[in-house]
Design a protein that fits this description.
- The chain contains ten helices and 17 strands.
- The chain is α+β, with helices and mostly antiparallel strands.
- It has three domains: 111 residues, Gcn5-related N-acetyltransferase (GNAT) (Aminopeptidase); 156 residues, Gcn5-related N-acetyltransferase (GNAT) (Aminopeptidase), CATH 3.40.630; 89 residues, SCP2 sterol-binding domain (Nonspecific Lipid-transfer Protein, Chain A), CATH 3.30.1050.10.
- The chain has a twelve-stranded mixed sheet with strand order 1-2-3-4-5-12-6-11-10-9-8-7, with helices on both faces. Strands 15-14-13-16-17 form a five-stranded mixed sheet.
- The longest helix has 15 residues.
- It is globular.
- The structure holds coenzyme A (COA).
- The site of coenzyme A has 19 residues, from strand 4 and helix 3.
């Protein structure tokens, strides 16, 4: 391991740290104008840098909260801007940054962290697991016909770019975050979203749906117009709704937009039933399924007790080499979770526990891959039941 040290970043180092991240992702360094647009998204005292003595790597987070199975919420660190200079990789810099960040979260009583990963092979070793996945879909607008039973929906009004930017926070905050894994959008998120739509490849529009009780959904999209015979594509950037009426009404609107050949959306909830709206289900194709939210239970005892469970109890053994204090046995039941010395019904590593935690995967499926080690079928059945959730996990917010 080379000689470097890790410490909290000062605010006047945030720009350099962001550029370390951008260079690591092969993105050009920021102009003064770009930095001015996003500087306010840096929550103070949430960045860590590695120095040798130059800044060679960084990681940061902002404070938010996440919805848990059962409907409760808990504080969460949304981790982002992770990067190490290309001439200093593979010598433990990220490992040291991750350790410093987890220690800081533990000191501040923040029990969990979430991130979106650039690559699938980086974060498992640090105890992060894929807790939520999303599907990318494409709809053939010319062939897709709604079924006659699909709700008519309410009133739609359309916002342009400036109104979208002004109203986004209140629109998002007005809707319930019902899926396990959904996070609150804090002021640290919006500057980046604003920058992205301002430099998007087409005009931004937001369709707002009003039901009997007021606003209950919105969809933000851009349309990339065809050139030389290529299809025109309506790209959904954000789609949130609180009722089946709003879901159907917003899709009716999307289908009604002229000069569009295809409608696409990325990383939608796996169980979002878009295809069921259509007479011919084949007019919706799933292009890919990807990891969406990676979760880390920083304080396993607190997090296991914070969600709800249904069904027969189990004892689960957790192995957490990166945060050793989490290792041990926990009894899970409809009364909650507590440490125990009872024999374990199943054993998992910390990253696999994260995959189970929001109900994103079944223990019996993870057992097929050897990631859950169980005493028998009955233990797996009970684990499947205990961790199951009414709707699929989904973060729904990129950061
Ligand atoms: C990913 C990145 C931050 C890793 O930093 P790093 O300082 O090289 O990581 P470490 O040296 O601490 O690596 C720890 C372990 O993870 C492994 N690892 C790190 N990055 C990996 C990757 N991209 N793929 C596979 N394994 C990886 C290392 O080989 C090492 O394994 P070992 O302990 O068995 O030797 C760095 O490569 C980077 O900046 N990449 C480009 C930007 C990026 O993808 N950032 C993440 C955004 S979500």
């Amino acid at each position: 391991m080379s000689d470097f040290s890790v410490r909290l970043l000062r605010s006047d180092e945030d720009r350099a740290a962001t550029d370390v991240f951008r260079r690591a992702l092969h993105v050009k360094e920021m102009t003064d104008e770009e930095w001015a647009a996003i500087a306010s998204s840096m929550q103070p005292d949430r960045g860590f840098g590695a120095f040798d003595p130059e800044l060679i790597g960084a990681v940061r987070s902002f404070d938010t909260e996440v919805t848990l199975p059962g409907g409760g919420t808990t504080p969460l660190a949304a981790v982002s801007l992770v990067g190490v200079r290309a001439d200093r990789t593979r010598r433990g810099v990220l490992t040291a940054l991750m350790r410093a960040q987890f220690e800081d979260l533990a000191d501040r009583g923040c029990p969990a962290a979430m991130l979106h990963a650039s690559e699938g092979a980086i974060y498992g070793r640090f105890g992060y697991g894929i807790a939520a996945r999303g599907k990318s879909i494409e709809v053939d607008r010319h062939r897709a016909r709604l079924r006659p039973e699909v709700p008519a929906g309410g009133e739609i009004s359309l916002l342009g770019l400036e109104d979208t930017i002004a109203q986004w926070p209140s629109l998002f905050d007005a809707l319930p975050r019902t899926r396990p894994g959904m996070i609150a959008r804090t002021p640290h998120l919006w500057p980046g979203y604003e920058r992205d739509v301002r430099r998007a490849n087409g005009p931004t529009a937001t369709a707002v749906h009003r039901g009997p009780d007021g606003v209950d959904g919105y969809v933000t999209y851009i349309v990339e117009r065809a050139h030389f015979g290529a299809p025109s594509i309506l790209k959904i950037l954000s789609f949130h709704h609180a009722s089946p009426d709003a879901f159907a009404g917003l899709w009716r609107h999307l289908l009604s937009v002229d000069l569009v050949d295809r409608i696409t959306a990325e990383k939608r909830p796996l169980d979002e039933p878009v295809e069921l709206l259509f007479a011919d289900l084949r007019q919706v194709t799933v292009q890919k399924i990807q990891d969406e939210g990676w979760l880390r239970l920083v304080d396993v005892a607190t997090m296991l007790d914070a969600r709800t469970y249904q069904g027969e109890p189990i004892v689960i053994e957790v192995r957490d080499p990166f945060l050793e204090h989490n290792s041990g046995r926990y009894r899970l039941s409809s009364d909650g979770a507590a440490r125990t010395t009872d024999p374990a019904d199943l054993a998992v590593d910390a990253d696999t526990l994260s995959m189970l935690y929001l109900g994103g995967w079944r223990a019996s499926d993870l057992a097929v891959a050897g990631r859950v080690r169980a005493t028998g079928e009955s233990a797996l059945d009970r684990a499947d039941q205990l961790f199951s959730t009414r709707v699929n996990s989904w973060c729904g917010t990129f950061f």
